[in-house]
């Protein structure tokens, strides 16, 4: 009897994507191997007292690439965390940063715990002890390695990391830049929490703005009126759903850990009401007006224009890929589509917008936060009032020369100076639009590139290769 083929691991999938892109580029094998390899892998075990008993906690920090420093990437709290997964995620971070021109190497951390089963006190003890382990080995610091939120973590955990790091580094003036995704009152930046979801929106909006590309999919251009299904209503999924709905899309399906729901009217859920229901009941099943499906995976196979997996890796595999009816898959999560599944999807003519590009909004705004921390001043603080005065001067001049009064509502709109949130959003929008153009152009220019993922990886590999060459490491 033939042995059952073992499913590929996450890192093996990422390596396939790498090889596909490396194959259409002209770099020497030694350089490509250096780009592909994870530079440092730190595996730790430490004891923490949980519910009166000492538990040995398993945790990781992987720095995939040191071609630019600091390294950057989130920390994940999940019961399935393992070394292979953290290595794959760190690798994706290097390519992600390169694609959106964030001048960092990739990294990722993970702690193998189920945060839902732990109290806030227990989570705090684990987070502080993990940070201490990072400090001990020089694996954290504004110029070394800068963690951020990921699946199962948020601003609260980042504040604990900052506080622990500062306790070990008294007087370090740039200590705030040792972690991003912090609360606003602790050196965080406005717009970081929604950043990944907003980036997903800008990225897909750009992708659906090209008439030729949409014609191939049998779709009209534009977001308004498109039907959307989202897997995951965590930080990324919630903000993605909210911003798509705000811009006229119909979010007709949502999946969470307990179940998946569908909107039988086709008009799209009220996302705020759904988020409130989820927070209160700790489940989405039973949301008034929704139809509950048998499993939490079923909604992925429903008909829609855009399917957005925003949870974990390996969700669309060779098992369910042939049943997907969406025209576009936007990867808000890291690694939600396996390499084998992608082949099936592409054959069906589905457009896959890859994670390394599409969910890069988080790290982009993390970069802005790090810049803010190093410059010790809020964006907009110095020039907002100056700009407003200058704009008012121009309006006054227009009124004087035309003899016509500008309406006071228009005056307010035209003379507004930018706040931090305006600058963050416009910086993010510019980044996502520019990066999509790079990827789309790479695909159009190189006839050997047939899909957006290979194009995105090719852009990333080229940028990292050029950086190694500039360093003088490779001739
Ligand atoms: N965890 C996020 C990601 O996977 C954000 C990383 C960061 O901001 O450094 O991209």
Topology:
Blueprint: H1 10-22, H2 29-36, E1 40-50, E2 53-63, E3 71-77, H3 83-99, E4 105-111, H4 120-136, E5 145-149, H5 155-168, H6 195-207, H7 211-217, E6 227-231, H8 235-246, E7 250-255, E8 260-262, H9 271-281, E9 291-292, E10 306-309, E11 328-330, H10 339-347, E12 351-353, H11 355-358, H12 361-375, H13 384-402, H14 408-414, H15 420-445, H16 452-471
Parallel strand pairs: 3-4, 3-5, 6-7, 6-10, 10-11, 11-12
Antiparallel strand pairs: 1-2, 2-4, 7-8, 8-9
Bound molecules: glutamic acid (GLU).
Glutamic acid is lined by residues 72-74, 96, 148, 150, 180, 334, 359, 362-363, 366.
Question: What does this protein look like?
Answer:
This protein has a seven-stranded mixed sheet, sandwiched between helices. The chain is 45% helix and 14% strand. Among the domains are: 151 residues, Leucine Dehydrogenase, chain A, domain 1 (Rossmann fold); 164 residues, 3-Layer(aba) Sandwich (Rossmann fold). The mean pLDDT is 96. By secondary structure, it is of the alpha/beta class. The N and C termini lie far apart (51 Å). It binds glutamic acid. The site of glutamic acid has 12 residues, from strand 3 and helix 12.
